[in-house]
From TrEMBL:
Organism: Neorhizobium galegae bv. orientalis str. HAMBI 540
Keywords on record: Cell membrane, Membrane, Transmembrane, Transmembrane helix
Topology of this chain in the membrane: Multi-pass membrane protein
TM ranges: 30-50, 57-75, 87-107, 114-131, 151-173, 185-208, 220-240, 252-272
Pfam annotation, one family: TauE
Similarity comment: family membership: Belongs to the 4-toluene sulfonate uptake permease (TSUP) (TC 2.A.102) family.
Subcellular location: Cell membrane; Membrane
Keyword Membrane (UniProt): yes
Protein name stated in the entry: Probable membrane transporter protein
């Protein structure tokens, strides 16, 4: 039985991660998963969760927290009129479909494989954001179907395998087709809603009955962590949204990229060591 004294430093780490995730959710439209997943991975490890299910539990719990956080962030951005609602309507099927496919893959993949997926995608996107040039464009407007549908499905798959709200990928997609980073951030909060809801269901199903799960878990969702972090992320998401609208495009890109490099490096180190 774990005592309160033993759990206290882990609770503090979760709350600090939740605060950062809430601000990042509003600032970058990422749902906060990019910071929650590595925090969960290490905290669950310190609490004795087996290696073979630790990453899956981190991914599923992250997506569960993103549900209310992304909704709150989406509402804050929509009030500012920056959300591309037409794009979101076109992805109502594609993004959830991709997310459900991701949960099926995650249920079969090893923890190390999921860590590598997270780290590689984060690193590629980080370099794109840091070294971004205005000439890096694929078009002046978003493509139509079936390309748009396939991109939405791909964003759902990759986001579901990273436990994120899709903002990292959607921001890249939209800016490559001439949209501003601010509109990308705002629209990504809506993409997070389309990813997190089916992701929650999929990770509950994928981990149902698995041995080694910590107390208060349903499948690959740990509800204790969810209950601790949701109030913090909900409270701070609007703060991040306000920061996003006072920062320049380049400041957002560089800050976003540096953050991803740090997270990616941390996962590569955990695999090597």
């Amino acid at each position: 039985m774990l005592s309160i004294a033993t759990l206290f430093p882990f609770i503090l780490a979760l709350l600090a991660g939740g605060a950062a995730a809430g601000i990042l959710a509003g600032m970058f439209g990422i749902g906060g998963g990019a910071i929650l997943v590595p925090i969960f991975f290490h905290v669950f490890g310190l609490l004795g969760v087996p290696e073979d299910i630790r990453m899956q539990l981190a991914l599923g719990t992250s997506l569960a927290i993103i549900v209310p956080t992304s909704i709150r962030s989406f509402m804050a951005h929509r009030q500012r009129g920056a959300v591309d609602t037409d794009l979101l309507k076109g992805w109502i099927v594609a993004v959830p479909l991709g997310t459900l496919i991701a949960t099926l893959i995650a249920a079969k993949a090893t923890s190390v494989e999921l860590q590598l997926i997270f780290a590689v995608i984060a690193l590629v996107l980080a370099f794109r954001m840091i070294f971004n040039r205005a000439t890096w464009k694929l078009g002046d407007d978003l493509p139509g179907n079936p390309i748009k549908f396939l991109v939405g499905t791909g964003i759902g798959i990759l986001s579901g395998l990273m436990g994120i709200g899709g903002g990292i990928l959607n921001n890249t997609f939209m800016t490559l087709y001439g949209r501003s980073i601010h509109q990308g951030v705002a629209t990504s909060s809506g993409v997070g809603v389309l990813i997190s809801l089916p992701g929650l269901v999929g990770y509950v199903w994928g981990g149902w009955g698995r041995p080694g799960l910590p107390p208060f878990s349903t499948g690959y969702i740990n509800w204790l962590a969810v209950a601790l972090l949701i109030p913090v992320t909900l409270y701070l998401a609007p703060v991040g949204a306000r920061l996003a609208h006072v920062m320049s495009k380049r400041q957002l890109e560089i800050g976003f990229g540096i953050f991803l490099v740090v997270i990616s490096a941390q996962f590569f180190l955990s695999i090597i060591l």
